[in-house]
Every structure is written in C-alpha cells, then in structure tokens.
Amino acid sequence: MTTEIGHNLNIDQSIVLRHLRKLGMVNKLDVWVPHELNEKNLMDRISACDSLLKRHQNESFLKRMITGDEKWIVYNNINRKRSWSKRSEAAQTIAKAGLHPKKIMLSIWWDWKGIVYYELLPNKMIDSTKYCS
C-alpha cells in the first residue's frame, strides 16, 4: 500500500512509511465481522456441553463418537488486507463474498483420531437422500 502511495506521489515508499508512522498510524490486518450468538444460543450450548461431560463421567463414550459437518468452499476467496489506521482505532472491516459465488460443498466426518470420510459435492447440498446413503 505504501508503494502505491509513493508511486502516486512520485516519492519513495520509505518516506511514505516514515510520515504515516509520525502521524501515529500502524499497519493492521482487517478483521471479519463475527456472527454473534444471542443469550439463548449461548446458554443452550453451555447446557449441552455440561450434559455431555456429565454423561462421559458415568460412561466413557466420547471416543466412540463420529462427528460430521458440511462446509461451502468458495472458489473466489476474498482475502483480508492490511490498512493504515491510528493505533487507537479498530481495523477496517471487509465484506464477505456475495450471496451466489461459485462454490463446492465439502462433507466431512471425523472421530477422535482424525478424518474418517470426506466427499466434495459440486453444486449440491446435503439432503436426506444424500445424508442416508
């Protein structure tokens, strides 16, 4: 970024960097805007975790569990960037990909040792037929 500013102003990048630092600016990586849980979601998760831990104390079952998940993998992945801002200011935010990007579904299953099975499903979602097969 300082290279681009230096090029536009026809000065060396090191001069741009020096002036930005004198102004109290620091180079920060932009952050994703998080999805927040509401109070009920948070309490439900705590309750479920507490219940599972109590059950595991009576009957060791966690090593027999297989867990699965699905994840959309976007082909055109938007990268976060660095930007200059004052030390006391928060990093800039960057929007996530649009609603209809080209993507592929990853279906993955694992146990306590690692991945048991995975499948890439182009242009598909997990429905009851696929889930049961």
From TrEMBL:
GO terms for molecular function: DNA topoisomerase binding; double-stranded DNA binding; histone H3K36 methyltransferase activity; histone H3K4 methyltransferase activity; single-stranded DNA binding; single-stranded DNA endodeoxyribonuclease activity. GO terms for biological process: DNA double-strand break processing; DNA integration; double-strand break repair via nonhomologous end joining; mitotic DNA integrity checkpoint signaling; replication fork processing. Pfam families: Transposase_1. One of its GO terms (cellular component) is condensed chromosome. This is Histone-lysine N-methyltransferase SETMAR-like. The gene is LOC105424137.
